[in-house]
Amino acid sequence: MTALTADQIARVKATAPVFAVHGTTITKHFYQRMFNAHPELKNLFNQTHQQSGSQPETLARAVYAYAANIDNLGALGGAVTHIAHKHASLNIRPEHYPIVGRHLLGAVVDVLGDAVDQATLDAWTVAYEQLAQIMIGVEAKLYEAAPWSGFRPFKVMRKQVESDEITSFYLAPADGAPAGGFEPGQYVSVKRFVDQLGVDQPRQYSLSDAPHGRWLRISVKREAGAADVQPGHVSNLMHDGVEQGAIVHVSAPMGEFKLDRQKSTPVVLISGGVGITPMASMLATLMAERSERQVTFVHACRNGRVHAFRDWLRRSAAEYPNLKRAVFYEAVSAEDRVGADYDFEGRVDLARIEADVMLPDADYYICGPVAFMRAQREALVARGVEPARIHTEIFGSGMLD
């Protein structure tokens, strides 16, 4: 790998602001350029995020962050690890990086033209090669540790409706082998062919049960869409077109959002909507291990009709002496029972449950819509919780910062 010179570092850093202004224009053109030359790569990218523009925006922010910190890559924190897990879940391999680099740099030239001189383009070429080698190295370790390579066929052993919006799929390897292990909080990618798009589409779903080797369980929310939001291609195919006995192709579990099972300190799980899925896995694991850790399970949803795992959570709170539950319903319906189905009306308000969530040395795990996670993290930090003890999971193209 060619090392960046001091002049090249200065050139990359100096041109970083270009991505603050023109980044999304460049990345949109990049994707168009790359897909025109390599249409097979559409199978690796969420085409809904392409159409909405959220994926190009996310890539533009990532390129800007890399360029702005080219002389201090440690400032990127866990971003490299986070992206590497996503890449490994999608089965992105070393041979893909030269293709991406060629078209990304080509898009820079196409959009900016004479504003980019050859020396600056050369500096960006070396910078991209450096980043590619970093990502390839991290991803190689993930692939080496994974229980299987690529997408593996699984058979749907059971399909269980969990709420009006969420359905669980119990998946066992089609060849009868063990399902393999994972860490509670991790996710898998599931690949389905979408007729409307003419390509395979991968979607990432958190595993929602404890690891035990017999099956993997994912719990999928039907994305019905709205006036300005397209229905979810894969989620609707899973709900309407995948029944017991069907074969789906699944990647190995990935994700750095995972329960630290070596600790004995308290755990606070905070979820909104379908964000309950990794929390269910974490709680189920603690219960299966007969852990003595103190656990507070905070969940928010609209009402009982969309509250997945409602009865399981109620039983768990009754059976597991170390568990405290705080369920918030924003729009309570007539059939919802306070104290049984839910505990509080309205949105999550940590001030109402402060004694149950502000626990010494606790770790906080948050999953849900981006705005929900941002609000909960800010509320915790305002109460003096160290950011290092707050863990979040983000899917799609959302960003907390």
From TrEMBL:
Question: Is Transmembrane among the key words of this record?
Answer: no
- All copies of the Globin domain together span 3-140
- Domain of life of the organism encoding this protein: Bacteria
Cofactor(s) essential for the protein: FAD; heme b
Which reaction(s) are listed as its catalytic activity?
A: 2 nitric oxide + NADPH + 2 O2 = 2 nitrate + NADP(+) + H(+); 2 nitric oxide + NADH + 2 O2 = 2 nitrate + NAD(+) + H(+)
Q: What top-tier enzyme class does this entry carry?
A: oxidoreductase
Q: Which Pfam families match?
A: Globin, NAD_binding_1
Give the PROSITE patterns listed for this entry.
Answer: FAD_FR (PS51384), GLOBIN (PS01033)
Entry EC number(s): 1.14.12.17
Q: Which GO terms describe its biological process?
A: cellular response to nitrosative stress; nitric oxide catabolic process; response to toxic substance
Q: Has keyword tRNA processing?
A: no
User: What keywords are assigned to this protein?
Assistant: Detoxification, Dioxygenase, FAD, Flavoprotein, Heme, Iron, Metal-binding, NAD, NADP, Oxidoreductase, Oxygen transport, Transport
Q: Where is the FAD-binding FR-type domain?
A: 149-260
Q: Cross-referenced InterPro entries, in alphabetical order?
A: FAD-bd_FR_type (IPR017927), Flavoprot_Pyr_Nucl_cyt_Rdtase (IPR001709), FNR_nucleotide-bd (IPR039261), Globin (IPR000971), Globin-like_sf (IPR009050), Globin/Proto (IPR012292), OxRdtase_FAD/NAD-bd (IPR001433), Riboflavin_synthase-like_b-brl (IPR017938)
* Molecular function in Gene Ontology: FAD binding; heme binding; metal ion binding; nitric oxide dioxygenase NAD(P)H activity; oxygen binding; oxygen carrier activity
Gene3D superfamilies in the record: Globins (1.10.490.10), Nucleotide-binding domain of ferredoxin-NADP reductase (FNR) module (3.40.50.80), Translation factors (2.40.30.10)
Role, per record: Is involved in NO detoxification in an aerobic process, termed nitric oxide dioxygenase (NOD) reaction that utilizes O(2) and NAD(P)H to convert NO to nitrate, which protects the bacterium from various noxious nitrogen compounds. Therefore, plays a central role in the inducible response to nitrosative stress.
Family assignment from sequence similarity:
In the C-terminal section; belongs to the flavoprotein pyridine nucleotide cytochrome reductase family.
- Report the PANTHER family cross-referenced here: FLAVOHEMOPROTEIN, NITRIC OXIDE DIOXYGENASE
Protein name (Swiss-Prot/TrEMBL): Flavohemoprotein
What species does this protein belong to? Answer: Paraburkholderia eburnea
Its organism's taxonomic lineage begins at: Bacteria, Pseudomonadati, Pseudomonadota, Betaproteobacteria, Burkholderiales
